[in-house]
Design brief:
By secondary structure, the protein is mainly alpha-helical. It has one domain (about 35-124). Helices cover about 75% and strands about 0% of the residues. It has helices at about 1-20, 30-35, 40-65, 70-95, 100-105, 105-120. Helix 1 (about 1-20) runs parallel beside helix 6, helix 3 (about 40-65) crosses helix 4 (about 70-95) and helix 4 (about 70-95) packs across helix 6. The mean pLDDT is about 90.
Length: about 120
């Protein structure tokens, strides 16, 4: 439940800041230009999403073999710090954690939050 609260809070704060400071300026949606100017951000997002995807796959494999599992906080934490897309893809590709609300609802909400952060940074 705290994941939902934090994600919604971040989204609301960013929306309030965006609409209170943006005024009459046009909205910037030039994602290629934004990431071209920040290649390390693109590398980070690629790595964290790849790591999160692999963690979901490993956890599913360990679950099938009844081995020691990857902690939920690790899966959610990696998803929260930028790996939500990799977590979502891994969750549905491996059919893992799809019935858990904090993953089935939390990961899409984290992805929306991360998109809101990038959108906010693009328009600062």
């Amino acid at each position: 439940m705290p994941v939902f609260v934090v994600c919604v809070l971040v989204i609301q704060v960013l929306l309030i800041l965006f609409f209170s400071n943006h005024g009459d300026q046009p909205v910037n949606l030039a994602f290629p230009d934004f990431f071209a100017a920040r290649p390390m951000l693109l590398v980070y997002l690629g790595l964290i999403n790849g790591i999160t995807f692999v963690l979901f796959g490993l956890d599913k494999r360990r679950a099938i073999r009844q081995k020691r599992r990857i902690p939920i906080v690790t899966l959610l934490g990696c998803s929260f710090v930028g790996g939500a897309l990799g977590g979502l893809i891994g969750m549905y590709l491996f059919r893992h954690k799809t019935r858990k609300d904090y993953f089935a609802l939390g990961l899409p909400l984290m992805l929306v939050m991360q998109a809101a952060v990038i959108f906010f940074l693009m328009n600062m």
